[in-house]
Amino acid sequence: LLGQILDHWFESEPLKATLATDAVIGAMASPHTPGSGYVLLHHVMGELEGRRGAWGYVAGGMGALSQAITHAATARGAHIFADKAVCHVLLGRDGEAQGVALQDGTEVRSKLVLSNASPQITFLELIPQEQLPKDFVQRIRQVDTRSPVTKINVAVDRLPSFLAAPNARDGQPLPHHQCSIHLNCEGTQLLHQAFTEATHGQPSSRPMIELCIPSALDPGLAPPGCHVVSLFTQYTPSVLAGGRSWDEQARNAYADTVFDCIEDYAPGFKASVIGRDILTPPDLERIFGLPGGNIFHGGMSLDQLYFARPAPSYSGYRSPVPGLYLCGSGAHPGGGVMGAAGRNAAQVAIKDFRH
Q1: Does S-adenosyl-L-methionine count among this protein's keywords (predicted)?
Q2: Is 184 within 8 Å of 206 (Cβ atoms)?
């Protein structure tokens, strides 16, 4: 349990609650949910430039990371075709993967196929169900993909000034502006309460907010004096109480709640907003192909990790379809921008290819 880990090391409730956010981030879980301690450790197990547990911003935004990978691959002879939707995997007479068919009718033949899509899209949409073992299909259908996350991107015309650490007169970013700022995290009970509301189909009345200002470190992201603020918030259910969907009114009402909370910590924030983009769980699913809006392609609960990710007997990147490999967040060790699943899958695929 997360609570036991934090109680063992810390006494301060605000510190424990702030650390607890990393245990429930992207998870429809409370700090009191068994297994939540793992997700906290998952967030600190990597390293950045030799510093264990460190995190970093990508200069130019997250898309710049994709561009860097693209340049590295094309320099070694890869051909990359963006905006080409795959409609299904081509199978040979013995059921082995032989390439992919695109929505425009083009067929791309290949000896191996690696899928970075979620297990749900890969196995339930791109492969004919009769080609897969029934128990495997059942397992993929049962993966818990609930997500509590609503992402709000905000453009502001000045730097937020927090009551706890007011801005300097020149309005230049201070050290805390360059970090992850956690709001509504004074106690783990607050997080549990926010979670409980969402389980009843209500967006949290006091949501957990992780606020980042990437333009404080990377000024090219916004015009001079202006900034972009990234809000990672939870808990929001995929379907609202009474079966209501996230219409424009519901989305704006929730965003207003989030902004009211930020206003309490940083008066003047609401007046500084010049644009906002609200992405609820259904939006994250529709736009990015995240099942249920889940940033990890499936919950990082103990029953969906290690040898059980994405399904028992298929945690080694191979799938029931020979020549088809899973290399995204739905494979071991799970989500996060670290590339571990992709690297491991590539090594397995290369080994099979040589044989």
Answers
A1: no
A2: yes
- The dihedrals phi and psi of 286, each to the nearest 5 degrees, come to -65, -45
CB 316 within 8 A of CB 308: no
70 token code pair: 């693209």
* pLDDT, tens only, 240-264: 999 999 999 999 999 999 999 999 9
Tokens read off for 42: 């998952």
Q: Rounded to an integer, what distance in angstroms lies between the CA atom of residue 317 and that of residue 85?
A: 22
Which tokens hold the place of 224?
Answer: 């001079």
Whole-angstrom Cα distance, residue 102 to residue 92? Answer: 17
All domains of the chain, ordered by start, with CATH?
Answer: 77-144+294-354 (3.50.50.60), 146-288 (no CATH)
pLDDT in tens, 65-92: 999 999 999 999 999 998 999 999 999 9
- Is residue 160 within 8 Å of 213, Cβ to Cβ? yes
Amino acid at position 135, single letter: D
CA-CA distance, 141 to 139, in Å (whole number)? 5
Q: Alpha carbon of 87 to those of 84, 90, 113, 137, 156: distances in Å?
A: 10, 10, 14, 19, 40
The pLDDT, as a whole number, for residue 120 is: 97
Residue 350 has pLDDT above 90, yes or no: yes
Instruction: Tell me 222's DSSP state.
Output: S
Could you give the count of Cα atoms lying within 13 Å of 338 in the half-sphere of its Cβ? Answer: 21
pLDDT value at position 49? Answer: 84
Report long-range pairs for 62-68 (Cβ below 8 Å, ≥24 apart).
62/337, 65/337
